[in-house]
Amino acid sequence: MFFRRKPQDLCDSIQAGNLQSVRRYINADNCNEPDEYGRTPLHHAVLGQQAEVARYLLSLGCEPATGEPGQRRGLMEEVLRSLSLPLIEAFVAAGVPLPERIDGLPLLHALIRHEGVDEKLFAFLIAQGLDLNQIDTWATSRTVLAHYLGMTSGSISLERVRWLIRLGTDVNLAPGAWLSPLYVALHNPSLPDHSIAPSEATFERVLDILHESGLVADLDMDASGHVGLALRALEQRKWAGFVRLLELGVRIPENERIWLAPFFVRDNFSSALTLRLMAVNEARGLDLPVSIRLHHARGMRKIVEDLPQDSPSVHRMFRDLAVASGFSCEEKLSLLGELLDKGADINTGAVCDPFVVSALQMAVGWPERVEHSDALIPWLLDRGAAIECHGLSAFYLAVWLEHMEYAGLLADRGAQLFYRDYKGRTIFSQLFNARPARGGMNHSQTCDVLLRLHAIYSSRNAELPLNETFEYGEKVHDWMNRSRLLPEAACLYSAQFSMPLMRRVLDIGWPLNAEVRTDDFSGNIVAYFLRYAYMNEDLSPFLEALSASEVLDVNSPESGDPLRQAIVSVSTARTLEYLLERVDDLDRCVRWHVNGKTTEYIDEPYLIYAMDSIRPGFLERKTPEHQAYVWRVCRQLLEHGADPNVETQARLQPSANSTSGVTRLRTTALEEAAAHSLFEVFTLLLDHGADPRRRTCIKEEQLVHYLCTRQSGRPAEEIIRYLDELERRGLLDIEARTRQNATPLLYAASKCQTELVRYFLERGADVHAEGGFDNSCALHRAISNWDWVGKENRRDTVLALLAGGANVNQTDPDGDTPLTAAALYGCLTVVEALLSHGADVNRVGAKHRSALHQAIMGSYNYDSYPEDADCEDKYEFDAPAKLRIVELLLEQGAEIEAVDEDGDTPLICAIYMDRFDIFHLLLKQGADINRLDGRGRTPLMIAMEFGELRYPNSMGHDQRILETLHHVAGNGNNLLHAISLRNDHASAMDFFRTAMEAMEVEYKANAALITPLHYAAYRGNLDIVRYCCEQGIDANAADHAGNTPLHTALMSSPDGPDGIGEAHVREIVTSLLTAGADPNRANAEGRTPLDLAVRQELTDCVTLMSVLSASTAMYGPAGHNLS
After folding, report:
1. What DSSP element (H or E) covers 819?
2. Is the dihedral of CA 851, 855, 858, 861 positive or negative?
3. 964 plus 1095 within the same structural domain
4. What is the pLDDT of residue 546?
5. Assigned domain for 321 exists
6. Which site in 323, 667, 720, 882 is 20 to 30 Å from 423, CA atoms measured?
7. 73 - beta bridge partners?
8. Torsion angles phi and psi, residue 977, rounded to 5
9. What's the Cα-to-Cα distance from 892 to each of 306, 823, 836, 855, 886, rounded to whole Å?
10. What are the residues facing 523 on neighbouring strands?
């Protein structure tokens, strides 16, 4: 590489612009090779700002990048940062594109910040297509000009502003008024208000340049929710800028005019600026609230002397003079007296952010701002100054701003002690602060003020308004921003601050046990504090300092239950100890209003409440800190005499079933400790005599049952830890029975808790024990589990039970074996396990059904369900899984022609349940396609009447059905009867015609003289009815009850759940009448079809049959034709 031969010399040559040397060593073959630092020759040219060298290198094909191959980065940004126009031109001429952004800013926005940028460079870039008026939509939302005028680092150049304007920048362009160049410049603290250096940028000078270029100065700030430009200029201390804005025509919104007054003082405006201000005020008729304080003392004196009687400005002048400085006390009071003599209103108000206050209120609240305030205050009071005016109280201001010496004076002068100001505030409103560290009165000062207020009110024979709510502070958090009583406000801080405040509240008259009522709480001040206390708050110093006469109520319903509040707020042991010594019933219950779908509320004794009710956000459950706290509280409760055998009591919603025992109404402290994974608390309870054999709730379950079923969602090792502890203490009863005679093993098996099943079996549990709601054994419970568990868990539990001696063929009370149950519920894994252990494949159970029957009849698919006990979705039938179960049963010798109590074979069951794959498998395995059911029907007849279309279609291809095609069932029905009863009318018609015409099945009545036409009319099969009528079949044939097809057509309500619609009935009736059906023929009960039509309110049919009856009577049978 060339760099390795003479690296430093060549680098120096490139950066020095020695083009001859560069040409000698660098060519198209090596121009992209980097040096040892990864810099290419072109990079060195950029570093040296050598445009000619860069042109040569680019002409060789040098990449506009640097770095090792594969790690290259572009050089164009570095070229642009060099601000070298020739270098930039060289790269652009070589076709190197300009980047859209540098450092996240549009290119021109990024470059305008650089000190060396000039007009020529910007003109070149604009010529390349860059938009000088582009608004940065990513970061600043400003134009280039606004971005530059908003820069706070470095100084703004007036000349740069001018050449930006010359290049075509729009001085008014902005997406919003607050983003305009004018507003941004106004807010820029690096733009001073004035400067003696003529070239230094000031806001006023920038404003003039913008004005010369068509600036629209009067921006509509109100529309954007911002303060007007004039007031904003004063707030930014741009006094000259303010005057210049007025000279340029900026408006002052009427609602902002009053806020201008405090700024019009001599310290802000020079004499020259004051003259300009006065001039523009007069020229534009602005009526600005200019103050006498713009003048020096001598000037103010002259103005007062020259002021005519009752001048309109006398009121404002009085207020301004009262707070003015530069006078002796005597001179100020003399001038104020003179103004009063000239008609001044002594209560005239002026803005003192955020209030409008009178001279008295200003002197009382902010005496440090008012010269000679000590003398001025009584002087004003002697001359009738109002203590309450402008919606404020001078007395309140004195208290809130800690000028208590003035508060006493004002109280003596008749201040209204129970005044509510314009915001509804009382004397307490500003004594408390949501953030004391950020200003306002601290807690120590508040305590002192409260005590002194108590003395002031007492001296006036008045009581502090302790029972009146007040607005708490200013601009506080939402949860604090509501009306409160004084005791509430005192309790909102940490114990360190609240304890002295609470003590002071008691000292000034609030009874210790008086109720503090809020929207969600009622109780004494201690309970209220503890309810909202921070974690680990120690209130014991306050409690222990209560006097002998101050007896804290911790027992009555009105107390707010301080112990409960202390527990939930994670209070200190010392605080709890104080309360525990005074609680008369340590087993008292705390009521939780759950208002859930099942449970309305739960009553929990303190012992259980401590396990369940830590305030959210304080201690994360199941952490060592949480467990240690609960253990400590429970230990304190037990040591003070709490009963370790207490129970919760739940009340269910009226709609919930409280007798089934599915939802527990009661749980013991031991059970709750286990439920909350509080093992140390669990052992603590046992140490204090808790009884794990205690029978609880409707099912009379013991702790061991609770652990095996109510806690089944937890890992088995966690449950076993509790069982081991019971065993270690000799308290584990593995054969404990519930009211329903269930054992722990049964419960563990019902949840397929395999490890627990093994645990109990290893300790000798009776594997054949029966019990529970269905009085079954553990093997059945594991299989017929109503809860959804994983198929592996179920199989493992079954295998564990079989290994423990369970009888693989044991029957339950319904007569089902484990195999028939597994087949019914779709437990393929269990079927495999049972068969491998010798289960009798042909043993029948309920309804004399074999496992093969049950596999087909059951719609359950337990092995396909998710492992989610809370899931309520219905899942589709898992055909492949059930097919596999059937295959396994057949492989193990299941009787393919077994019949159940109805005489149904597995093949017939497959037709009924629509198990098409199983149907074909059975036929393939030799099932008899003509085997009759218990009523003498063939499978084809059943398929015709009940089966989906694919069954009769499939069977039609099997020649064996010809043997029974003309078979008659036990009730005399043949194939035509079955077809007539089919619900699918379209396919039924096709089958009916084929049976009569191609297969010559005889049309005949059954044993009850019912014909296929009777059935077709009843089912509403219009096509079969019409076909029979066209075939000349007797429409008046009567069954054994005298009913004709016309009767059966009218027997079911057309509007009922099985109805076929009145219009459809009318068509069937019309077809039958046309075929000669007699509407007046009575059945065995004496009812005619016409009677039935009237009874069913089939108006059209009644009319039709009535007309026909009349026509027949008049013309004879010839009138019977309705066509």
Report:
1. helix 818-824
2. positive
3. yes
4. 96
5. no
6. 323
7. 66
8. -60, -45
9. 126, 14, 10, 14, 10
10. 516
How far apart are the C-alpha atoms of 588 and 582, rounded to whole Å? 13
CA distances from 437 to 427, 434, 498 (A): 22, 9, 15
**Cis amide leading into 354 (omega within 30):** yes
Q: Please state, in angstroms and rounded to a whole number, the distance separating the CA atoms of residues 1031 and 897.
A: 40
Judge whether 497 lies within some domain: no
Which phi-psi region, left, alpha or beta, contains residue 191 (left: φ > 0; alpha: ψ -120 to 50)?
A: beta
Q: At what angle do helices 791-803 and 828-836 cross, to 10 degrees?
A: 20
Pair 870, 908: CB distance under 8 Å: no
Q: Are residues 52 and 134 in the same domain?
A: no
Question: Which amino acid is residue 688, in one-letter code?
Answer: H
Question: How many other CB atoms are found less than 10 A from the CB of residue 158?
Answer: 16
- Alpha-carbon distance 529 to 552, whole Å? 14
Cβ neighbours, 10 Å, residue 135: 18
Instruction: Work out the angle at residue 699's Cα, subtended by the Cα atoms of residues 695 and 700, and round it to the nearest 5 degrees.
Output: 10
SS3 941: helix
Q: Is residue 291 part of a domain?
A: no
Element (H, E) at 600: strand 599-605
On whether the CB atoms of residues 408 and 456 are closer than 8 A, the answer is yes
Q: Residue 792 has what DSSP assignment?
A: H
* Domain end residue (candidates: 48, 64, 99): 99
Q: Are residues 655 and 761 in the same domain?
A: no
CA 939, CA 841: separation in Å to the nearest integer?
24
**Same domain, yes or no, for 969 and 1112?**
yes
What does the H/E/C string look like for 69-102?
Answer: CCCCEECHHHHHHCCCHHHHHHHHHCCCCCCCEE
Averaged in consecutive runs of 10 residues, what is the pLDDT profile of the chain (1123 residues)?
56 88 90 86 92 93 78 84 95 94 94 94 96 94 96 92 96 93 94 88 95 91 84 94 94 86 84 90 87 78 87 88 87 92 93 85 93 96 97 95 94 95 88 54 88 96 92 52 82 91 96 92 96 92 96 97 95 97 96 78 93 76 88 98 95 76 87 95 98 92 92 89 97 95 95 96 96 93 82 95 97 94 95 97 94 94 70 68 97 97 97 97 97 97 96 93 95 97 95 95 97 96 96 96 96 61 92 95 96 92 89 54 46
Q: What tokens were used for 1026?
A: 């019409």
Instruction: Name the residue among 834, 836, 823 with its Cα closest to residue 885.
Output: 823
CA 1 to chain centre: 65
Closest CA to 831 of 789, 882, 897: 882
Task: Quote the DSSP letter at residue 758.
Answer: H
Beta-bridged to residue 484, according to DSSP, are 470
Question: Measured between alpha carbons, how far is 710 from 949 in angstroms, rounded to an integer?
Answer: 48
Residues 789 and 845 in one domain: no
Instruction: With H, G, I as helix, E, B as strand and everything else as coil, classify residue 845.
Output: coil
pTM of the model: 0.69
Q: Count CA atoms within 13 Å of residue 88 on its CB side.
A: 21
Q: Give the separation between CA 733 and CA 743, rounded to whole angstroms.
A: 9
Q: Exposure string (b/e) for 1081-1091, b if CB count within 10 Å is 16 or more?
A: bbbeeebbbbb
Domain range holding 1042? 954-1120
Per-residue tokens: 582: 């005074």
Q: Which two tokens stand for residue 307?
A: 């002021």
Task: Report d(CA 690, CA 705) in Å as an integer.
Answer: 16
CA dist., res. 403 & res. 360, Å (int): 13
The set of long-range contacts for 418-422, using a CB threshold of 8 Å and a minimum separation of 24, is: 418/462, 418/465, 418/468, 419/388, 419/393, 419/395, 421/391, 421/392, 421/393, 421/396, 422/390, 422/391, 422/392
What tokens were used for 1069? 């009736």
Which pair of tokens denotes residue 1083?
């059945």
Q: How far is Cα 289 from Cα 312, in angstroms, rounded to an integer?
A: 12
In terms of phi and psi (left: phi > 0; alpha: psi -120 to 50; beta: otherwise), the region of 1009 is left
Work out whether strand 73-74 and strand 65-66 pair parallel, antiparallel, or are unpaired: antiparallel
